[in-house]
Amino acid sequence: MASDFIIDKVSGKDNFALVIFGNQLTGGNDALILISKLNELPDNYVKFVIADLSKVEIINSSGLGTLVSALTTLKKYEIEFWLCSVPEKVQKLLEMTHLNKVFKIFENTEAAISNLKN
Description:
It is built from four helices and seven strands. It is of the alpha/beta class. It has a single domain, classed as STAS domain (Transcription Regulator spoIIAA, 2-Layer Sandwich), CATH 3.30.750.24. A hairpin with a 5-residue loop joins strand 1 (5-10) and strand 2 (16-21).
C-alpha cells in the first residue's frame, strides 16, 4: 500500500521541502514512514518543511499525533515545520485542541513560501 503523502524536495536558496498529504491523516504505518523520511531531511540541507493539508478530509487523534511528531522530530534538527491550506474541519480540530497555537499556519502554499523570504 502506498503512503498517503508525498515529500517534494524543492531546491534553491530557501532549502525547503513540501509534504503533500492525501485525503486521510490517521497515523499508523504512514506516520512511521513520514517520520523516517523527515529524519533524512537534514542530510539534504532542508531548513523548512511545509505541510500542505488541502486534500485532508479525514483526520483523527493519531493524525494530529503525526503532525506533532513531525514537529518534534524536525525541531531537534532546527528545521521549521509549517502547515498550510488547512481545511476548515481540520482547522476547527486544531483550535479545539489548541494546536493552532503550536503550529505556524498559512492560508496556502504560496503564502508559506513567500514567508520564507521574510
